[in-house]
Design goal:
By secondary structure, the protein is an alpha+beta fold. It has two helices and four strands. Strands 1-4-3-2 form a four-stranded mixed sheet, covered by helices on one side. A hairpin with a 6-residue loop joins strand 3 and strand 4. The chain is globular. The two termini are about 30 Å apart.
């Protein structure tokens, strides 16, 4: 039996600002649906990923900013670094960490 992680809720304060940031990073906006005054569902997927993130209003009880240490994986860190910088994303210098 396969078990696949497909969607992770990311609690944010400003849905539009967060959506714009992830799109600028290169995530694809799959859905942006306002269900009601209290519920908005935005799904974004990183390029090449089978797992997406969900931003919105009324999706989770987690406090904005409480999701900590979500990791993404790239095949070439230097290429990813230059791509992000080219998109105008502020990134720190690459650090070689013993844990990966």
């Amino acid at each position: 039996m396969d078990i696949k992680l497909e969607l992770v809720a990311v609690p944010v304060t400003d849905v539009d600002r967060a959506k714009a940031f992830y799109e600028r990073v290169g995530f694809h906006a799959d859905h942006d649906v306002t269900v009601s005054e209290d519920v908005r569902f935005v799904q974004l997927t990183p390029p090449g990923s089978a797992c997406s993130i969900a931003l919105g209003k009324g999706l989770t009880r987690m406090a904005p900013g409480s999701l900590d240490n979500m990791q993404v994986v790239v095949t070439d860190i230097e290429e990813a670094y230059e791509d992000l910088r080219g998109r105008g994303i502020e990134v720190t210098e690459i650090q070689d960490m013993p844990c990966g």
